[in-house]
Write a structure and sequence with these properties.
The protein is of the alpha/beta class. It has 16 helices and 13 strands. Helix 7 (162-186) packs antiparallel against helix 15.
Length: 459
């Protein structure tokens, strides 16, 4: 990362494809340049009759500088420093989509002196050049990877600096407290005594604010990574029908023959703003068929790795020894008992235990809303709500804020123990450092490397 920072200071120009490239799909592909020679490179490749102006779209052709062969008909967007994403000169070629056009344009840019960008290097330059802070940069990555409208809104809140504003306010208040304490240490004879009561109140307010932000960590993780839900049960209880009814499409083959599902079938859904990966597993039973047995083994693995298990049974048969065996395997995990086929008769012989129970008629599409409500109740029982989310911190931010929260508590304990003021400053500085890590004001090169390596190359 030190090397990358040095290259930015030297103005080395980087280039990358900034859009997803899929054969025969996508009408437009973008090649992005950033750096001191971006405009020079573009002028050597782009032919147009229009005058070159910043923040204007120009129409023309990319031609090979040696052969003068036309490569593509493109639009060019020029953004001169500092009014650009990276605060450097930025040029974007908006080419025809697909593979060949953008690849050829990218190779020409590299041949003219640009370097292929590292993952996240455009956003890294934006951060190092003061265009973004670290929470905003991470918000961009979250927005690109958002799997639901709520996740996108939480990411957008990060980009807009809502988290930054709160963290910097807390950090500023800690700096004020530290300044007061250090002033009493250095100029004890010239200043009035420290108002310990006021300091305590300030620290309590900061501690409460940090704790409130920390409470969004689990919710933020759910919005980013989603919830993995496994549907398990005996063969022919309606697991595949449940998946099809829930996803509103025929994702799984449904027949009256037990053992039809031989492997784990996945479907991506959104429930109450939370991305949900639903796994329809093979019916678990003693099987002699080798293929079915492999499917059962995968089903058992899926059930153990899931965040939530839907133990599904045939309501006309009720609770049997097979369900009891399955329940013993998953009882340590969050689970819901799904009683299916209730349209064929009243459920019989159902167990009495604390887990939520939902009745469905999957083949008729009934009970899906009740199932989703039951899932959301389990999520909310963990103090998580997917609605009206304004801030949602990620794991890195949560780790830094946890350290800040702990250090603030230690300051309070130090004051309570009537220890000298020098001891107060130790944990106050730790708090300030941890809060600075969230926004990037306190950051090591290795941490930056880890964060931006998770970005896509064109971002």
């Amino acid at each position: 990362m030190i090397e990358a920072g040095a290259k930015i200071i030297q103005g080395e120009t980087i280039a990358a494809i900034a859009t997803a490239i899929v054969p025969q799909q996508g009408s437009v592909g973008i090649v992005r340049l950033s750096g001191t020679t971006a405009i020079t490179i573009a002028q050597g490749l782009f032919q147009t009759s229009a005058s070159w102006e910043s923040h204007r779209i120009l129409y023309g052709y990319i031609t090979h500088p040696d052969t003068q062969q036309t490569i593509d008909e493109v639009l060019l967007l020029l953004m001169q420093s500092p009014r650009s994403y990276t605060r450097e000169d930025v040029v974007e070629f908006h080419c025809h989509g697909g593979i060949m056009a953008v690849q050829q344009v990218l190779q020409l840019c590299i041949a003219q002196g640009a370097r292929l960008a590292e993952p996240g290097e455009f956003t890294l330059r934006a951060f190092l050049n003061g265009r973004l802070d670290l929470t905003q940069a991470e918000g961009i990555a979250d927005l690109v990877g958002a799997q639901s409208p709520q996740a996108a809104q939480a990411a957008l809140a990060g980009i807009q600096g809502k988290l930054t504003k709160v963290i910097r306010h807390c950090r500023s208040r800690c700096l004020d407290v530290l300044a007061e304490v250090e002033a009493r240490i250095d100029f004890a004879d010239d200043l009035p005594p420290l108002d310990e009561g006021s300091i305590r109140l300030q620290l309590e307010d900061i501690l409460a604010e940090v704790g409130q932000i920390l409470s969004t960590a689990h919710q933020g993780e759910l919005l980013r990574t989603g919830l993995k839900v496994a549907i398990v049960g005996q063969p022919n209880v309606g697991k595949s029908s449940l998946l099809n009814a829930w996803s509103r499409c025929d994702r799984a083959i449904v027949t009256a023959l037990p053992g039809t599902t031989r492997d784990v079938v996945e479907s991506q859904l959104v429930v109450g703003g939370i991305p949900v990966q639903v796994l329809d597993t093979a019916g678990i039973r003693d099987a002699t068929d080798q293929v079915e047995q492999l499917g059962i083994e995968r089903s058992q693995t899926a059930a153990q790795s899931a965040d939530l298990v839907l133990l599904t049974l045939d309501g006309t048969l009720g609770w049997t020894g097979a369900e009891a065996t399955l329940y013993n395997d998953i009882r340590h995990k969050p689970h819901i008992l799904v009683v299916n086929k209730v349209d064929l008769g009243a459920p019989v012989n159902l167990p009495q235990f604390d887990a939520p129970m939902v009745e469905t008629a999957a083949a008729q599409g009934q009970g899906i809303e009740d199932l989703e409500n039951a899932i959301l109740k389990i999520v909310q029982a963990g103090d998580v709500s997917a609605a009206n989310l304004d801030l949602a911190i990620n794991q890195r931010q949560a780790a830094a804020l946890t350290r800040a929260h702990s250090s603030l508590q230690q300051v309070e304990a130090t004051i309570e123990a009537q220890l000298p003021l020098d001891f107060w400053t130790i944990d106050l500085r730790d708090t300030i450092h941890a809060l600075g890590e969230v926004t990037g004001e306190e950051m090591t090169e290795s941490m930056l490397d880890e964060i931006f390596s998770r970005f896509c190359i064109g971002k």
